[in-house]
Amino acid sequence: MDSGYSKHNKFPSIWAEIDAEALQFNLKQIKNRVGRRVGIMAVVKDNAYGHGAVFTAKILSKSGVSMFGVSEPAEALELAESGIKNPVMILSPLYGGHIRDTVRFGFTQAVCDKAFAGALSREAKRQNIIAKVHLKI
Q1: CB–CB of 97/86 below 8 Å?
Q2: Torsion sign over Cα 56, 62, 68, 70
Q3: Cα–Cα dist 29/23, whole Å
Q4: What is the 3-state secondary structure (H, E, C) of 105-124?
Q5: Whose CA is closest to 120, among 104, 23, 63?
Q6: How far is CA 47 from the centre of its chain?
Q7: pTM of the predicted protein model
Q8: What is the Cα–Cα distance from 56 to 121, expressed in whole angstroms?
Q9: Any bridge partners for residue 88, and if so which?
Q10: Tell me: the pLDDT tens digits for 23-40?
Q11: Measured between alpha carbons, how far apart are the two ends of the chain, in Å?
Q12: Helix spans in the chain (H)
């Protein structure tokens, strides 16, 4: 049994253990339910809800997750820098430099309004990059 915990734990008397085999089993059950042609996004924002984003993402990446969801570019970058090759979607709205980084690093951004789409488009044009977006309708 492989287990891990957040090294960023602010409360040393509290911990969470992740059973890698159970996590893989649960993902397999979901994949069996939704079918092979459906991609699965694992949300690992906020350090995988305190369970260790990189640790959790590495297990799920090896088990066939299609994409990861995070709150901000710093979380996406942490996954990329740890060797995670899966696409990453940023689920929260962004401001200022975060938009620049999201476009620059090629992360997918969830977009829910015209103004935000415009800001992403302007930044992508400035960088001469096609921004990756997911329209939230």
Answers
A1: no
A2: positive
A3: 10
A4: HCCEEEECCHHHHHHHHHHH
A5: 104
A6: 10
A7: 0.84
A8: 32
A9: 68
A10: 999 999 999 999 989 999
A11: 41
A12: 20-34, 45-50, 53-62, 73-81, 97-105, 114-127
